[in-house]
Amino acid sequence: MSRYPFPIPFGWFQACWPDDVPQAGSFDFRGVGRDLRVVRQDGVLEVRDADGGRTYPTIERNGLVMFWYHPKDAAPSFEIPVLPEFDRHPEFSEPVRRFSPEIKALWQELGETAADVAHIQQHLAAYGAGGLTNAGRSVPPKVVDSNWKGPHGYLRLSQPFPTPRGAVDGRIDTDSHGPGFSVTWFRGLIDTGLIGCNLPLDEETTSIRFTFVCRQQADAESTSSLATAFMDEIHHLAVEDLEIWEHKAYLARPRLADTDGPIMAFRRWAAQFYDSDSFEASPEHLQHAVV
Asked: Of 78, 102, 125, 159, whose CB count within 10 A is highest?
């Protein structure tokens, strides 16, 4: 019996980074339940089935190779934004990359973290942000704005960050464009950006690629050190979540506290990326969801 009641979603997914593909070769990978291959066709990267039976709309954007998958071969219904900061921008660092090749969890469980304010609060507390309430608990981030309608969903959080000179007002802004692409900006101390790309390997397994940049500092060495240290911390926190993701039971109607964030709104948003012929358009757990 499957852990989840969902098929593989449709959307834009990252196949690889461009330099993963040799100039005179190809890059093979597993994704969306298929064996796939990235090839250079007349100097342009293209994703196709490894057996050559099907090609997929492919773009090279933001330093990533992205391909569009739909179970019925429907044309792309939304676009991935252009983010200049991730494409050799003079004011930002060279990208730092991390890859988790196989996580035994549904992409939706991983993506739900973006809307789980209580979960974000715990990570920020471990990082030293936010301070404490009178009851000794960490101060939760404040939801400034949230919208989970259409293919572009977003969450805006405000959160103080500690410095030797006192707390600095900060923001955590997350934008998700379909199931396979999200960008999170941490602003306040040093502008830092993180692109997270989920790739469903099948209905129950996901890989994640992280691409991270930060605003340039006084010298290149400081910028590189800061980017690597921050990315290592984010990757460390993600690895800490692996045990939770891989053993967490999916509940259609979870008991949520007021401080948990717009999780059910995120689930309704996620439902639009499942083909209606293989997934009930208004499942029971969404019909009765209350934000």
From this structure: 159
Q: Which amino acid is at 46?
A: E
Q: Quick one: residue 240, left, alpha or beta (phi over 0 = left, psi -120 to 50 = alpha)?
A: alpha
Task: Write out pLDDT tens, residues 67-92.
Answer: 999 999 999 999 999 999 999 999 99
pLDDT band at 289 (very low <50, low <70, confident <90, very high): very low
Cα distance between residue 274 and residue 208, in whole Å: 19
* Helix (H) / strand (E) containing 223: helix 220-247
Strands (E) located in the chain: 11-16, 26-31, 34-41, 44-49, 55-56, 58-61, 64-69, 96-103, 142-147, 152-161, 168-177, 182-187, 192-200, 206-214
Q: Amino acid identity of 206?
A: T
What confidence category does residue 9 fall into, taking pLDDT thresholds of 50, 70 and 90? very high
Give me the pLDDT at residue 193, please.
92
The first and second tokens of residue 207, run together, are 């890989």
Here the tokens at position 116 are: 């789980």
CATH number among 3.40.50.40, 3.40.50.1820, 3.40.225.10, 3.90.380.10, domain 90-287: 3.90.380.10
- Token pair 């330099």: residue: 19
d(CA 85, CA 95): 9
- Count of C-beta atoms within a 10 Å radius of residue 219: 9
Every domain of the chain and the residues it spans: 90-287
Contact 266, 153 (CB under 8 A): yes
Residue closest to 181 by CA, chosen among 204, 151, 146: 151
CA atoms within 13 A on the CB side of 22: 5
What CA–CA distances, in Å, run from 81 to 64, 155, 176, 215?
12, 17, 10, 20
pTM listed for this prediction:
0.85
Q: 189 and 163 in contact (C-beta within 8 Å)?
A: yes
